[in-house]
Design goal:
The chain is an alpha/beta fold. It has 15 helices and twelve strands. It is globular, with a radius of gyration of 21 Å. Bound molecules: ligand V47 and iron/sulfur cluster. Residues 86-88, 125, 188-191, 193, 228, 230, 232, 263, 265, 267-268, 272, 305, 326, 335, 339 line the site of ligand V47.
Length: 397
């Protein structure tokens, strides 16, 4: 059975709850589901049901295509003026001797390490410290572009920008316009956490608000930059907080169309002030990807960040609405390993990423940051690649 036949079959099920049936009909008719229906999906949607709906949407948009990119991270500092309760990675200013704070030269050394490699993107994110200010990033972006003009700079989040622009007495628009002129290309999705004040106050009350986060993305979109959005889920929030979060993103996307990808980030519970809160199950992770795919009807892509959820769950997620599994990383990020993620030294070769995707019957495409095709790996065979005996997804002609 293909994705459409499965959805038709589901709708015929006489035992299907009426509200779930009406949502499935909306999906088949490409109609938007409401906030209330989003909450119903979380409360009543079983994994199998959600998978059928999300996979239908995923295959309608992308078929079997699954994207990845070749990137590396620079984390300029892990010292931070903020104190997010879920953050295992950062050190407060008073503990800065236990952390790192790079100079522009050190960041350029990392960029130069990749001179002979076909990476297309550098993803920059980290803590917030006064000396890494507007002039610091302007200098780095300019040097990076001068050295390697084709490397896409996906840099910093509204958490850093809010702080930096306030100190520089610039509006969000002015600050972003200036940094864009220095080489900034796009913005990653971090710092969103959970927008609703009730939760945000408790987990990251001292950094930018939801309104500030959304405004900085809106200004970036006005400048023609594409950006991503994340949601940190599975801690003290309720289901409706997640729907509220996605609703705010959906509304901004209706207005600007500037978001590319939504990345649900699973809360990991090691090494920080919220380590007493259990992590949610893999089933909940898959339900959450699926609901995101159904709810965010104006987002092109849903990404599973493999470094955080394990390679197996990343493979499974490709049947639950996900069409992108992020990049090679090359062991350049510490945010998740320090919070208890399975991958302690996250890095995958292109071959490993391609095989991970092919082994669940999907079609790997290396993309650039803006989803331009860098290389289609459908018919590329690597030497020594082991074909799986069993495909987790049925291969349909
Ligand atoms: O904003 C921090 C999250 C984010 C924990 O745009 C945690 O392509 C789980 O945004 N458990 C930063 N999550 C990373 C990020 C990202 C990652 C990959 C791709 C993209 C993209 C963006 O990491 C933070 C925060 O939400 N985080 N600590 C934790 N204990
Ligand atoms: Fe700082 Fe970001 Fe960690 Fe919050 S999540 S403490 S803003 S590094």
């Amino acid at each position: 059975m293909n994705a459409t036949q499965k959805l038709d079959f589901l709708i015929q099920d006489k035992n299907l709850d009426e509200s779930l049936k009406s949502i499935a009909l909306k999906v088949i008719n490409s109609e938007r589901i409401s906030y209330e229906e989003g909450v119903i999906l979380y409360e009543k949607g079983e994994l199998g049901y959600l998978g059928v709906l999300a996979n239908y949407i995923r295959e309608k948009r992308h078929g079997d295509v699954t994207y990845f990119n070749r990137n590396f991270h620079i984390e300029p500092t892990n010292v931070c003026v903020y104190d997010c309760k879920f953050c295992a990675y950062s050190r407060l200013i008073k503990e800065r001797d236990q952390g790192w704070e790079m100079e522009v030269e050190g960041m350029m050394d990392i960029v130069r390490k990749y001179d002979d490699e076909a990476v297309t993107e550098v993803h920059i994110t980290g803590g917030v410290v006064p000396k890494q200010n507007l002039a610091f990033y302007a200098d780095f972006f300019q040097q990076c572009k001068a050295h390697r003009p084709d490397l896409h700079i996906k840099g910093l989040t509204p958490v850093e920008y809010y702080y930096i622009f306030k100190k520089a007495k610039l509006s969000h628009y002015e600050g972003l316009k200036y940094l864009q002129s220095c080489g900034l290309d796009s913005m990653p999705g971090g710092g969103a956490e959970i927008f609703h004040e009730e939760i945000r106050e408790q987990i990251s009350g001292d950094k930018c608000t939801a309104e500030q986060w959304l405004d900085i993305h809106e200004q970036a979109h006005k400048l023609g930059m594409r950006t991503n959005a994340t949601m940190l889920y599975g801690h003290i929030e309720s289901f409706w907080h997640r729907v509220d979060h996605m609703e705010r993103l959906r509304q901004l996307q209706d207005k600007t169309g500037g978001f590319q990808t939504f990345i649900p980030l699973k809360f990991r519970n090691k090494g920080h002030q919220m380590d007493n809160i259990p992590e949610v199950s893999v089933i909940e992770d898959l339900r959450n990807y699926a609901i995101a795919r159904i709810y965010l009807d104006n987002f092109d892509h849903i990404k599973a960040y493999w470094a955080m959820i394990s390679r197996d769950t990343a493979q499974l997620s490709l049947a639950f609405g996900v069409d992108d599994i992020d990049g090679t990383l090359d062991d350049t990020t510490k945010i998740y390993s320090m919070a208890g993620a399975e991958e302690q030294k996250p890095g995958m070769s292109t071959q490993e990423l391609v095989e991970l995707i092919k082994n669940v019957g999907r079609h790997p495409i290396e993309r650039d940051t803006l989803y331009g095709v860098v290389k289609d790996f459908k018919d590329v065979e690597f030497e020594g690649a082991v074909k799986p005996k069993y495909y987790a997804l049925p291969v349909v002609d």
